[in-house]
Design goal:
single chain; 147 residues; 17% strand; 5 helices; Ribosomal Protein L13p, Chain: A; two-stranded antiparallel sheet; alpha/beta
């Protein structure tokens, strides 16, 4: 019997096909929509997904200011930041962060769902979030991503 030698095909820069998607966040739940976005950024929707290669797509999120929280999270949920100084821990309610910087709500949620290493930081750079309904990526012809 002859010995057959099979090798695993790994995706690389030449075989990965990156596409652009646009997500409308209007009336979508934060966690539910962000977990789907994180999966697309990782490339888990691709048949050739490999955990050690960034094979994800680009995602453009519009209407970030119209995203919704369930329950009473809008008032109760707090986002912590640390200034680096003693006693410099600051907390901001979800309601005020959404009003002040609506992009940050989606960006922070998605970032927490990506790997915590250099490949995760590389994946995060493929996310573009806009508060309004206009974006700067019309030239890339993004396809609508519906959940």
């Amino acid at each position: 019997m002859s010995h057959l030698h099979f090798t695993t095909k790994h995706p690389n820069a030449n075989t990965i096909k990156r596409s652009w998607h646009v997500v409308d966040a209007t009336n979508q739940t934060v966690g539910r929509v962000c977990s789907k976005i994180a999966a697309v950024l990782r490339g888990k929707n691709k048949p050739y997904f490999s955990p050690h290669v960034d094979c994800g797509d680009f995602v453009v999120v519009i209407n970030a200011e119209k995203i919704v929280f369930t329950g009473n999270k809008m008032n109760d949920k707090g986002y912590l930041t640390f200034t680096g100084y003693p006693g410099g821990l600051k907390e901001e309610a979800a309601k005020s962060l959404l009003k002040r910087k609506p992009e940050a709500v989606i960006e922070r949620a998605v970032k927490g769902m990506l790997p915590k290493n250099r490949i995760g930081r590389q994946m995060f750079k493929k996310l573009y979030v806009y508060a309004g309904s206009t974006h700067l990526h019309a030239a890339q012809k993004p396809t609508p991503l519906t959940f």
